[in-house]
Amino acid sequence: MAEKMPVEQVREAAAQLEGWTAEGNDRLSRSFKFKDHIEAMGFVTRVAMAAEVMDHHPDLRIVYNNVEIHLSSHDAGGVTDRDIRLATRINELV
Known about the structure:
four-stranded antiparallel sheet; globular; alpha+beta; Gyrase A, domain 2
């Protein structure tokens, strides 16, 4: 099991991840806005496929062309290196 990262380490990592915000060491969050619903859903599908490969699944909220993503390792009770890796991969998919 991955270990929850200290809050300072999470903040440092989030500062290196474009668009991501650290909510303490509990979760990472980012919002995306797309041209329309189809573009947003295509992005969510790419995120879902990347998450499945990593066996680490984000919390997603989709409202028309807006997508909110929250990352947290539930088994560790907060942000772990797995969340940082997935956030990095999601940024590559934008």
